[in-house]
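B., you asked whether I could sanity-check this one before it goes into the benchmark set. Here's the sequence:
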Amino acid sequence: MVFVNEAWNQTGDIVVYSNYHKYWLDRERKIKNPLFDVYSGKILDLKEGKMSAVQYFYQLLDPEIRRGVTICVVPSSNSEVKESGIGKLGEMLAGNGRKNKVYFLRRNKSIDKLATGGNRSMETHMKSISTVLDMDIDNDIVLLMDDVTTTGNSLYACKEILLQNGAREVEMFALGKAI
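And here's what the prediction gave me:
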C-alpha cells in the first residue's frame, strides 16, 4: 500500500490525480484550448522545473503517500536530461521519510517526445530505458510517478522494469491524464 487513503490504492492500474488539458488546440494557427485550466498550467510549470509548481504538488501529495515507500520517476524521453520537474518533486517527497531512488530508471537512448507524436509503444520504452547499476530496489514497495499519462505505456514499461529488478510492488501514479 503506497497511499494513506485506501481509495487511492488501485492495484494494477494507474492512479491519476486529475485531468490534463493541453494548452494549444492548434499551435500553428495559435488556437488555445478553452479547457486549459490552472491545474494543467501547474503541470506545465512542473515540466519546466519551476520550484513553485514542485512545491504546489508536494503540498498536495505529501500527506497522501505513506512513509517508507520508494519513490521513482519515469525518465524523460531525452536521454541527455538527467533531472526533471517530476524528479525534483520525487526528491522532495523522498526527503520526508521515503526512499530516494527517484532516478533509478534512466533513458539510455532518446526517443521522440511523446507529446509531439513520438512512438508510444511499450516496446519503444522497454528498449530505451535501463537502470542505475549502483542502486537496487530489491523487495521495495515503489511509487512510480509521471507528470502526464496518455496511453500509460511508459508507466507500464517502467513498472515491468522495476519488477524485473526486484521490486516487491509497484504502484503507478500520474499528476494528469491527457484528455
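One thing to flag: Residues 28 and 116 are 13 Å apart (CA to CA). Otherwise nothing jumped out at me.
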